[in-house]
Amino acid sequence: MHHDQIELIPLFSGSSGNCILVRAGSTCVLVDAGVSARSVTTALTAAGYDIGQIQGILVTHEHADHIKGIPMLAKKYGTPVYASAGTWRAMHGKFRDCPHFSPFTLPGGSFYIGSLCIEPFALSHDAAEPTGYAFFSGGEKASIATDTGYLSRGLIRALEGSKSILLESNHDPEMLQTGPYPYVLKQRVASRKGHLSNEDCARALVHLANTGTEKAILAHLSRQNNDPALAHRVSFDALAQEGLDMERDFSLSVAAPAMFEKEKKAEPLVSLLI
Ligand SMILES: [Zn+2]
Ligand SMILES: [Zn+2]
């Protein structure tokens, strides 16, 4: 049974670039590759993997911090690229050289890559057709949702039942309001097409914990408007208040901006313990 467990391994997270390795048995895919192709291959090696093992790159949306390295990876290694039809249209100019490309429609059905069944769902973000992903393997579910301004009931439903989840905990609302961003950008981040606050994230995790979620990785933290210890504390306290034994019943960690830097020892999933 253990070989079917779905692992979510954030290689890069935040506005400087996002790339998450998803593994189930021998099936490996990436969600986004928003850093250079070289950074992706280097991080994969540091994490104990090889770019040749990657069977597909699933794109969440066309913002640079999510797609930067994809054209080169697709061209150099022939890695197949998957994205919603709207995302594909929005990034088409840069992606002419992708040899294998599979657009899908939203809402739509699920598809397989190796032993992973993948179910894309729509997010709420200022992009053409932003997408989150749920993964199924061996009776287990895991999901990824970053870059969404809010979590609608439909979105929450798409996440329910996930044993592990990588969820955006982008900003502290007060740090955002008092911080250095220009007014228009503050409004955009806080809007329903922006990014999830620590509190939104914590509220969702409390609900999801009641649907079977045992492991959460907080991701896409703002460097300006958040602090890893604060993001961790907000979700930790909310879950603990709900009566969860945070040592036994739940694993909560924060994705670092670059989890597998050369000099650092590979330490998947946990970048910060409080
Ligand atoms: Zn974005
Ligand atoms: Zn982003």
Tell me the strand percentage band.
15-25%
The major pleated sheet works out as: 7 strands, mixed
Helix content: 25-40%
Write the CATH homologous superfamily. Ribonuclease Z/Hydroxyacylglutathione hydrolase-like
Describe the structure.
With 274 residues, the chain is α/β, with parallel strands linked by helices. The chain has one domain: Metallo-beta-lactamase, Chain A (4-Layer Sandwich). Helices cover 28% and strands 25% of the residues. The chain is built from 9 helices and 13 strands. The strands form 2 sheets. It has a 7-stranded mixed beta sheet with strand order 7-8-9-10-11-12-13. Strands 1-2-3-4-5-6 form a 6-stranded mixed beta sheet. Helix 8 (198-209) packs parallel to helix 9 (228-241). The longest helix is centred in the last third of the chain and has 14 residues, at 228-241. The radius of gyration is 17 Å and the shape is globular. It starts with 5 loop residues before the first strand and ends in a 20-residue tail after the last strand. Bound molecules: zinc ion (ZN) (2 copies). Residues 18, 63, 65-66, 147, 220 line the site of one zinc ion (ZN).
Give the topology.
Layout: E1 6-12, E2 19-24, E3 27-31, H1 37-46, E4 54-58, H2 64-67, H3 70-77, E5 81-84, H4 85-91, E6 101-104, E7 111-113, E8 116-122, E9 131-137, E10 140-145, H5 153-159, E11 164-168, H6 173-178, H7 183-190, H8 198-209, E12 215-219, H9 228-241, E13 251-254
Parallel strand pairs: 3-4, 4-5, 5-6, 10-11, 11-12, 12-13
Antiparallel strand pairs: 1-2, 2-3, 7-8, 8-9, 9-10
Helix pairs in contact: 8-9
The protein binds zinc ion (2 copies).
One zinc ion (ZN) binds at residues 18, 63, 65-66, 147, 220.
